[in-house]
Automatic annotation (TrEMBL):
It comes from Dyella mobilis. The keyword NADP does not apply. The keyword Transmembrane helix applies. This is YggT family protein. The chain crosses the membrane at residues 6-29, 64-88, 108-126, 153-176. Pfam families: CCB3_YggT. Keywords: Membrane, Transmembrane, Transmembrane helix.
Length: 192
């Protein structure tokens, strides 16, 4: 790829990554029942609702899972994948492209959780105000993954449950997302 194509690729990844992150935050905020009065939750709701409201009329929630937000995350990653491949002059088969975008979705969610748990753990060790909006939001999102191990992996006054969860998430990226991405790449080239 040329330097210009690399620069465009970076801008595409940044733009669609930001869009996917916004809709993923909406999805996880609803799924974890994050506090709606939190200014961060209100920001996310304000900027995602105009897109999600019409889609939710056709694709309603399933339990606490906002399927419209999940669809938007997947579409953002699919469009990102198409644009980056087109920059490289690659036009994959549709089935392979769909599988690769599904792998991108799985990997994106896993990486998002790694960043949230790491950031939340770091900020909580630095005695950050627990009522700060970002801390409350990150804590609400991270809690379902940390709750089963919380208090069970304590040495001294250090809880190692975030470390174990991050290691499991990293392993899931290697053992789940990467093989799915490889399958999608083979299918996109017609080597299924």
């Amino acid at each position: 790829m040329s330097y210009l194509a690399n620069a465009l690729s970076m801008l595409i990844q940044f733009a669609f990554g930001a869009i996917a992150t916004l809709f993923l935050c909406r999805l996880l905020a609803e799924a974890t029942r994050a506090e709606f009065r939190n200014p961060l939750s209100q920001f996310i709701y304000r900027y995602t609702n105009p897109v999600l409201a019409p889609i939710r009329k056709v694709l309603p929630n399933w339990r606490y899972i906002n399927l419209a937000a999940l669809l938007m995350v997947w579409l953002a990653l699919l469009i990102e994948r198409v644009l980056i491949l087109a920059l490289g002059g690659i036009f994959p088969q549709v089935l392979g492209l769909l599988v690769m975008s599904l792998a991108d979705l799985v990997d994106f969610v896993l990486l998002f959780y790694i960043v949230v748990i790491f950031g939340w753990s770091l900020l909580s060790m630095l005695s950050t105000d627990p009522y700060q909006p970002l801390m409350r939001f990150a804590g609400a999102i991270a809690d379902p993954l940390l709750r089963p191990l919380r208090g069970k992996l304590v040495a001294g006054s250090i809880d190692f449950s975030p470390t174990v969860v991050v290691i499991v998430l990293l392993l899931a990226r290697i053992l789940l997302a990467q093989p799915l991405l490889d399958l999608g790449a083979r299918l996109s080239l017609g080597n299924g």
